[in-house]
Amino acid sequence: MRTFSRVLSNSEISSSFGSSRRYGSSPLAKWQQRRRTGTLANKTAALEGFRFPWPFPKKPSPYYNTASYLTIGAVATVAKFLFIRAANELVVHNKERFMNLWMDRSRPLITISNHRSNLDDPLMWSFISTREMYKNIDRHRYTLAAHNICFTTPLHTRFFSLGQCVPCVRGEGVYQKGMDFCVEKLNENGWVHMFPEGRVTKEPLRFKWGVGRLIEDTVIPPLVLPIWCTNMSSVWPNHPPYYPRFGNKVEIHIGDPFDSRKVLDELSLKKDDSNEYLYTATTPHCRSLALPPVMMCCVR
Predict the structure, then answer these.
(1) Which of 2, 116, 249, 260 lies 20 to 30 Å (CA to CA) from residue 293?
(2) Which pLDDT does position 64 carry in this prediction?
């Protein structure tokens, strides 16, 4: 717990902003950053680092939606096989909190979680029953995925995009096409899942800016739900040989939802950089929501 608190201390949050402002804070510098990433200022610019045509159609056809739902369902079914009977044990705490928010289509939903295994997603959603999955499959999560890992071939690009994984180019900042796409989905009252640490890590890392950007640019203030997963890397390790392990217990801790409306109301009274304020306001809150599961892990 000390490590988690140290990594996300307010002093380190402040210093992380200083090191991240490569482009400065002036309007011109921000415009240059947005132009470089090919979004906002010029949405017709190419997405740097992503070698394939954008995989998501503007108006999905019934055929595309069917293919997407089948992909999501197939992946969810395979993930469940790792937790059937004596394979591995999956324990979820406060599932009803997640289900209530998932089925409430009046507000956009952002879920965030720690990232300890390459297969955190989709394994972490195995607590959703098959009936619940197909009943709400049209509001299944979109999640950012590294473009240089999941989108390396046309076939992989097709598969992961049908599974509602969105390409994210590391190093391109929060103003890139994948982030814009997630904002669009939230503006449709959709669900976006993020790993705010930005990569798979054994030790907790500082949160990056992505959640703040999504909150700022979504028309209806989204609800933010923190989730903490334990022991997931024991089921699917991060080192070779890559195959599932059995006889392990995985716990999913679902925290209290955080209404971003309050932060946005406070933001409207301020004149400083909105992204920085959103980051410093939301990160400590999400950290405090995640601390109880961390404490339980330390006790065990």
Answers:
(1) 260
(2) 98
